[in-house]
Amino acid sequence: MTGAIPGLLWLRPKVHYPYGKPNKKGAVLVLSNHRTMIDPILVQMAFPFRRMNSIATKDLFSSPAKERFFTLMHCIKIDKNNFSTSSFHEIVKRLGEKKLVVIFPEGEVHVKSGEEILAFKSGAVLMAHRAGAPVIPLYVAEKKKWYHRQHMVMGQAVDVRELLGKIPTVDAISAASVTLREKELELQAYYENQCRKEAKG
Fold this sequence. Notes:
Elements: H1 5-11, E1 14-16, E2 28-32, H2 39-46, E3 52-57, H3 64-72, E4 75-78, H4 85-96, E5 100-103, H5 123-131, E6 135-140, E7 151-154, H6 160-164, H7 170-199
Parallel strand pairs: 1-7, 2-5, 2-6, 3-4, 3-5
Antiparallel strand pairs: 6-7
Helix pairs in contact: 4-5
């Protein structure tokens, strides 16, 4: 999926790096909060020189034309109510091919203003561990007005294998999911405390 120039001009995206820019090369699993249906485009703007592979629910592949379109956009079809081993292995395979994969671990669009990020799904942690890929958390901020600039906050890369060890346990996976959610909340707090006033411009 590639970002569109009109989108860049309209959204005027700005990415904040409170801990410095992470290494965006090679295999990367990006975990982002999920506010709107255009979030994949916004994430692509945060990684403008990478070809993005993102998950998409099977409902979006409801016709042959849509199937072709989302396949061409390098989307990975999943059933969020019955996540299959084939989807899991496809994501791990693409990470193994040194690709960038984007997952919205909240599992749904979460648009209520002022509320905390929903609990993260643990599957993303296990995928990153299996592929040996770093996880980069990204926070997409809410825009109060349509003409406001789009702000995002990107965190440091996280080595999941350091959190889980060689053989992850269920408890360790759950704890790592909580840790990644906490990092996402830190990015949200950074935006609220450091960037919100700028975002009105």
